[in-house]
């Protein structure tokens, strides 16, 4: 459960704190993936066609997440990150729920994301929030280090997991 000191709000990703969070995330991603498969969205790309949220706990910045529309009009979850000292407190879950609510309020019927096998905690977060695995979307190439996921916001599928009824 989150402490009373939790805050979440829209922010400019090009500020010093936005850039610092994204740099921390990039450093983490580059420690577990080869650079050739890191799809890193810049703060400027988020600012031009997306929304960026920052999470604070007791006035300390602890995480971020973004939504960005791709070239095909699909809404992608980007730049989800919680600093290591703040993990395990429900921050990512709350941040994800807020971004989903925002997406729904803007009329989007789905959110898409790309993650990878080394990020077991992220995969569990997304699956527990109702995301299901799917094939590549939005111009991504299929790759063994990529896991593509989607969550329907208009109606939740009947947990078919791709099997025939």
Automatic annotation (TrEMBL):
Domain N-acetyltransferase as annotated: residue spans: 9-154
Keywords: Transferase
InterPro entries in the cross-refs: Acyl_CoA_acyltransferase, GNAT_dom, NAT_camello-type
SUPFAM superfamilies named in the record: Acyl-CoA N-acyltransferases (Nat)
Ranges in a coiled coil: none
Molecular function terms, GO-annotated: N-acetyltransferase activity
Entry protein name: GCN5-related N-acetyltransferase
């Amino acid at each position: 459960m989150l402490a009373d000191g939790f805050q979440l709000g829209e922010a400019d990703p090009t500020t010093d704190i936005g850039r610092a969070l994204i740099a921390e995330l990039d450093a983490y991603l580059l420690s577990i993936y080869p650079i050739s498969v890191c799809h890193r969205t810049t703060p400027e790309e988020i600012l031009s066609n997306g929304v960026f949220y920052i999470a604070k706990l007791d006035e300390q910045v602890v995480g971020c997440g973004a939504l960005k529309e791709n070239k095909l009009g699909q809404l992608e979850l980007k730049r989800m990150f919680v600093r290591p000292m703040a993990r395990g407190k429900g921050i990512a879950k709350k941040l994800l729920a807020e971004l989903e609510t925002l997406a729904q309020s803007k009329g989007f019927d789905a959110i898409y994301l790309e993650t990878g096998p080394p990020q077991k905690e992220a995969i569990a977060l997304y699956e527990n929030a109702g995301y299901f695995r799917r094939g590549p979307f939005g111009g991504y190439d299929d790759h063994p280090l990529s896991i593509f996921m989607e969550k329907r916001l208009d109606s939740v599928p009947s947990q078919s997991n791709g099997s025939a009824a």
